[in-house]
Write a structure and sequence with these properties.
Layout (H helix, E strand, L loop, with lengths): L16 H9 L1 H9 L5 E6 L5 E5 L5 H7 L5 H13 L2 H21 L2
Antiparallel strand pairs: 1-2
């Protein structure tokens, strides 16, 4: 499931920028933060041959990392749990794809 489908085109037209910003602040941000696991770099080591070796942690969503963090207030964690419970990742993906197509239509019309 790839949702960052903005492609390699330039999106510097002022009419496209608000659409991209709305997508990033809305459903795309929710999808990435609540449902998309990523690996975080834990350490780097220099090998004797001069090459760098990187060690990554287990994949986890940003949501899971927040839930595991001790300094996050319980009421904030509860608010995030409620938000995640209301969202359907498949509906988010469909909405994101619809918005990406709209962005592409506007971009192509302005070329």
């Amino acid at each position: 499931m790839c949702v960052t489908g903005l492609g390699y085109q330039r999106h510097d037209n002022p009419e496209v920028v608000p659409l991209i910003n709305e997508l990033a602040r809305g459903e795309l941000g929710q999808f990435v933060n609540l449902f998309s696991p990523s690996m975080k770099l834990e350490s780097k080591e220099q090998n004797p041959d001069g090459r760098e070796r990187r060690k990554y942690g287990e994949p986890a969503t940003p949501f899971a990392r927040v839930m595991a963090h001790a300094l996050i207030r319980p009421e904030d964690k509860a608010r995030l749990r409620v938000l995640k419970g209301k969202l359907n990742p498949f509906a988010l993906e469909a909405s994101i794809q619809k918005q990406l197509k709209a962005i592409d239509r506007v971009r192509r019309a302005l070329e």
